[in-house]
Predict the 3D structure of the following.
Amino acid sequence: MGDRSAADAGADLSDADRVRAMLDAATTQLKAITEALRRLEEGRYGRCVDCAKPVPEGRLEARPEAARCVQCQASRERRR
């Protein structure tokens, strides 16, 4: 049964698991937005929190809460 799709795996989640996952995602997004607003107030919005280089405008349009440039975000994800 190793050929299960993601939809099949999702069907196994209980309602409580789905609610918990949605709450976790919403909490993470709220934290990112709050931090972005703080950077905006401090005049640091649009600058990477790791290297201080500008975050590309297209990235900010797609993800206004983005805290890192593409290179630093990719490095961070590789370390996980």
Remarks:
- The chain has a mean pLDDT of 89.
